[in-house]
Specification:
By secondary structure, the protein is α/β, with parallel strands linked by helices. The chain is built from twelve helices and ten strands. Strands 1-2-3-4-5-6-7-8 form an eight-stranded parallel barrel, surrounded by five helices.
């Protein structure tokens, strides 16, 4: 699968702008997105051996203000010298309202841009903040001789203004790969009556996050992006983590943050299809290919056991099979051509 190439606002700005989108798959596996403090070499070393699909090295909340300058160089060292095989490599910089952002980006991308997949921008409030990051990345890539446009952007939505602008944010640059829900700052920004990040506020009988999650999901899907759920801070509460992750997975989210190694396996399992569903999806695809072929009678719909399948069934099966293949699953059943 490849993502839709969105017109980049930077291409309309004189003297700068993104070049044509490079041949990079923006839809990378992101079932588990592990947060690692950029100032902690021990954690950075350990993260390389964990089974997370994505690791993001954090210069924002997980990094104290006085530690940020040194942490930039620590991150560069670990990106260049570490073994991140099989992982999407991301750095979360500080948001544009701080004085750290430009130096975060310049230091990390100039120092390790060839070993970096994405920059995560927190607290995104409008499309212009994405445009600004796109422009800065383009300038660095051109200066350093890197492939222009290869480094992606992950946009984190953490307040009401960001949510109301989420569709424009999703379309702001062809670099954008994911839209991420940041629950902690979001809950604070709307004065939600809860101190447990991701849990339902007391006194509200429905799902307080449904509108937020669906808004992010719709913006992502309308632009062929991935939707990622944010962290669950009670890291010892495995059942609580699983419940929140299952909610996001049921809606169609692609993955969730993990803050502790114990959460990685749960995220990978929850955001992968079950073996039964994966096998069934592959059977639908094989059966549909056969029945629509000359040999199968050129049928628009057919029966697979007790189930009628058609083009809509194929599209739904592609989603499940795609997730299963990305997770490295192997099918345990095979489509048998029916006897005449």
């Amino acid at each position: 699968m490849t993502s839709t190439a969105h017109p980049s606002p930077t291409s309309t700005l004189t003297g700068s702008g993104s070049a044509a989108a490079p041949s990079v798959n923006r839809l990378r596996p992101r079932r588990s997105c592990l947060a690692v403090p950029g100032s902690n070499p021990r954690f950075l070393e350990k993260a390389q051996g964990l089974a997370a699909d994505q690791v993001f090295l954090d210069l924002e909340d997980a990094c104290a203000p006085l530690a940020k300058p040194e942490a930039r160089h620590t991150i560069v060292k670990f990106l260049n010298e570490g073994d991140w095989t099989g992982k999407t490599r991301v750095v979360r910089v500080n948001d544009w309202t701080t004085h750290w952002t430009y130096r975060d980006v310049v230091t990390v991308v100039e120092g390790a841009g060839q070993n970096l997949d994405c920059i995560m921008l927190p607290k995104v409030q409008d499309a212009q903040q994405i445009v600004a990051l796109d422009l800065l990345l383009t300038q660095i890539e051109k200066t350093m001789g890197f492939e222009v446009g290869k480094i992606g952007i992950e946009a984190q939505i953490e307040n009401a203004r960001g949510l109301t602008n989420v569709n424009a944010i999703a379309q702001a640059s062809q670099r954008v790969e994911t839209i991420i829900f940041g629950p902690a700052d979001f809950m604070a920004s709307i004065n939600m009556k809860s101190l447990v990040v991701g849990e339902q506020p007391p006194g509200y009988p429905a799902d307080a996050y449904h509108h937020i999650l669906m808004s992010i999901l719709m913006a992502a899907r309308a632009n062929d992006l991935q939707a990622i759920d944010g962290p669950y801070l009670q890291i010892r509460n495995q059942e609580g983590y699983k419940a929140v992750a299952q909610r996001a997975a049921a809606l169609g989210f692609d993955g969730k943050w993990v803050l502790h190694p114990d959460q990685v396996a749960a995220a990978n399992e929850i955001f992968s299809p079950s073996q039964e569903d994966y096998d069934h999806a592959e059977l639908i695809l094989d059966a549909y290919d056969y029945y629509t072929s000359e040999a199968g009678g050129k049928k628009g719909s057919a029966m697979l056991g007790d189930e009628m399948i058609d083009e809509a069934s194929r599209k739904m099966a592609l989603v499940i099979s795609g997730k299963g293949r990305a997770a490295g699953m192997q099918r345990t059943s095979k489509f048998e051509i029916p006897e005449a």
